[in-house]
Amino acid sequence: MMKQIYATHTPDGREVDVKPLFQLVEDILSRASPAVDPLFLTAQTRVETWDDKTQQASFIAMLEALSFTIDRVACEITYKSSSGEDAHATTLSIFNQLSYFPWEAKLVITLAAFALSYGEFWLLAQIYSSNQLAKSVAILKQVPVILEHSASLKPRFDALNNLIRAMTDVTKCIIEFKGLPSVYISHDAAPLVTAMAHIPTAVYWTIRAVIACASQISSLSSLGHEHALMSSTNETWELSTLAHKIKNILDLLNNQLALCYQYIEEKMNLETYQMLLNLLEGVQIDNMKLLKALIYAKEDLQPLLDGSTKRRVNLDVLRRKNVLLLISSLDFPRDELSILEQIYNESRVHATRMEYEIVWIPIVDRFAEWTDPLQSQFETLQTTMPWYSVYSPSLIEKPVIRFIREVWHFRNKPILVVLDPQGKVVSPNAIHMMWIWGSTAFPFTSLREEALWREESWKLELLVDGIDPTILSWIKEGKYIYLYGGTDMEWIRKFTTTARAIASTARIPLEMVYVGKSTKREQVRKCTTAITAEKLSYCWQDLAMVWFFWTRLESMMFSKIQLGSTVDVDPMLREIKKLLSYDKEGGWAVLSKGSFVFVNGHSSSVLPTFNEYDAWKEYVPSKGFDMACSDYHNNLRPDARPCCRFEFSSTVGRIPDTMKCPECLRNMEKYMAFLCCHDESTINALI
């Protein structure tokens, strides 16, 4: 059967824009329905704008060119359907008449031909009661009698409507294939090749369905309602069978169409991704091109929300400014956001000296369902931010998210990408600079980062600057200051008691500060409560200060690594990494005299050093307490020396491939670990 159809197909290369004609046909078929179906309302709502389109010269010219062909096909359908000729033979005859046209044009022309008679029938049904001419013609066609028995003919009308809907849906789908952008999908693309192989079959069965529908209208007009009632069951079954077949074909075509759009989307995403790479490498006059490519390129809406006024604004507010792109998921740590907000607000005071803008770019899983709780979480987070933010996560396209993850190494932990006024990336992640130096790091370039590190040295201010002014005042007074941490209360009691006793014996002014641990927040809270109650030392009651201390310390390490430093050539990085490593294994202490740090040690070496005070106290008068303690500690070989360990969350982005041990300078082994630092509050919530 299909061989016969293919034999009639000899297109001459003519191009026919069938979309306007199909829209007109769809409007006729929807308005001519005996009972208006809600699914057809979308077609009916186009009629106001359609009146203007029909006046267009190109459309009129197209109608003039096709009107003769449409009339010929209409006559063929009317004659063959009323004479009872075989449906396949009639369909084949129509294919022969339309042999020079492409597949979609054959289908739309045939539907247009059917719409003439079908529209005429129902036009008479709708106006015969108010128009005498229509009434006379309607009587000739037995329209009033048929409508009088419409209730008994309802199953047949319903089957007719279902089939017509299936016919229009298939036609719409086939036209959509024709309109796919050839720039992104070629004719030899696999999903399109498969679809094109099924389109001739779809066109054949849809035209067969047109013949069946025309036969129904013809039988109603010529044979009267009595014959229609008698044959209603068989006719309804035939229409329903055809509708089922066409819907199956439609499902197959829709699946292929979805694959085609997926193919196109992948091509477009790749193009956008490559464009972003090119923008990074090229030289721009300002930052607008890159910001539009990242956030929103069109001009039809305002893509930003101003955090200070809570009003929507255009991207132009960022033109030729230093822009810090704050990129994060919706799980933005509260402590992090609070301290970043504090730093930002302080920078506004010195706006003339440090002019930069922050823009929050929320990254969400575009494949996951966007729910009301997620929207609420987003809005709550957005409301707390005093800077600009992208109005909706949906504005950030998939290729942009891929670019941010692959090029800027975003995982889920917030990063701060810095763009200069020309849109050049001057720092791939300035969040570490922000935590260490705050707005002093402006303009947040890698050169500025290197300059700031050249001004630093391993001293106590580096660890506590910007956190606690009390400690800074002790430093100015030249006091001995011991920072210590861990969650082993037995060790804490021994350390603080012994340290205080030795300080009393040596007659040195001593202050001690408990700075907790980088994890296990609830245990740190309990230790803080116990230390305060037992008056063992000074504590940070605000756990955000504890979090900031450890975050700054980690940022120092990441900043150094980002700049290419290694422990064998950078003594400061070595001490930072030691302290971070000690935090993973028990207690630790950093001992200083004013700014000068003379001991940075693990609990396994610091407490024995104090316990063996009698062995080195004789050197205190000559060397000073600090150097005597340092020399003895450095020469001590503890029995149980802990392993040096670093843990990098998979959300931090850039993870070093290799690391050297800060203790022995050998290359460290690399493992993959699964970690759950549950607090008791979390456990209790699960019980």
Automatic annotation (TrEMBL):
Residues 448-678 form the Sieve element occlusion C-terminal domain. It comes from the Eukaryota. Residues 1-282 form the Sieve element occlusion N-terminal domain. It holds the Pfam family SEO_C. This is Protein SIEVE ELEMENT OCCLUSION B. InterPro entries: SEO_C (IPR027944), SEO_N (IPR027942), SEOA (IPR039299). One of its GO terms (biological process) is phloem development.
